[in-house]
Amino acid sequence: xxxxxxxxxxxxxxxxxxxxxxxxxxxxxxxxxxxxxxxxxxxxxxxxxxxxxxxxxxxxxxxxxxxxxxxxxxxxxxxxxxxxxxxxxxxxxxxxxxxxxxxxxxxxxxxxxxxxxxxxxxxxxxxxxxxxxxxxxxxxxxxxxxxxxxxxxxxxxxxxxxxxxxxxxxxxxxxxxxxxxxxxxxxxxxxxxxxxxxxxxxxxxxxxxxxxxxxxxxxxxxxxxxxxxxxxxxxxxxxxxxxxxxxxxxxxxxxxxxxxxxxxxxxxxxxxxxxxxxxxxxxxxxxxxxxxxxxxxxxxxxxxxxxxxxxxxxxxxxxxxxxxxxxxxxxxxxxxxxxxxxxxxxxxxxxxxxxxxxxxxxxxxxxxxxxxxxxxxxxxxxxxxxxxxxxxxxxxxxxxxxxxxxxxxxxxxxxxxxxxxxxx
Length: 424
Known about the structure:
17 helices, alpha/beta
């Protein structure tokens, strides 16, 4: 059985193979719209088009690679069944493909996967798939799935480091080039393991070589950026898991080799910025996207001057977002925007102290959104953890000055990650 690294790691998807993939998946994969965003076109004085992969039946582009891979397997392998590991979107693509092709599948997902994605995977797979929750990250699930694969002799469907998967994702590039009425100057696309960018960058470099390809990772999981800097695939010790659809500790070997050659730039965007984009898309364009799906658009601010007057494509990779995460998304967005601040406030143990804080310290537009206080001793002062939401980031410094002047200031928690995580 071929291992993931036995084949030449400088593999490149050919145009012929991608066209074959496009034909193979055409019966089950939607040709998603390439729609201009008037909101972002106006904001950046450019023509910004969104490739709406969030509108796929499984609400992400992952169905392309998963269906292309599974449907290309010989019958004797299909009869053994398939297995995969995924943070959610690849799982749904594999489940959908198994159901359509009547192939038994086992799907390993991290125990931290949003429940919405677990339920959707079970729904798309029906009686043809078994979902197993294992570990805290994709990498934990991957190791468990590989052990299961070795024991049962199943065919592993890799979420990104696989030729047929890469070729399936590359079909997006063919659609973009077919749908666009003008030459495309920039393509912004999210990157987790690298299958999407490996595929589309290969097609653009062959068919539209003047198009600049920009890859985006979450700031807390810069696997590809770190690997490109080191000149080899690097496995990160720790990652921020919030952007669950694009947070891996190690990118694909094939994908690294392709991206190293094809990408014009690899950048990261803060998780808080991604959250703000999610809220903006919902409030301004009635679009519901997941964190990974908002990454490409989140990067536009960094290129505001370069893309002015240009034709730009952002790939909206998915919309599998659990509604229960919206409170956290709003909180992260406010923290990133400088509108939400947490303090340890020192209150004198006397009547009227809280009233004085509200009347003399808080500004007219400041709002207390979190207050945790417990008197456990007879000292003259008692601490409270207080969260304050501002209307304008410029109100922060005057607020702190008033706290210090009135002797209420204890400690600012936003810049103390260990204490922040413990108390909030």
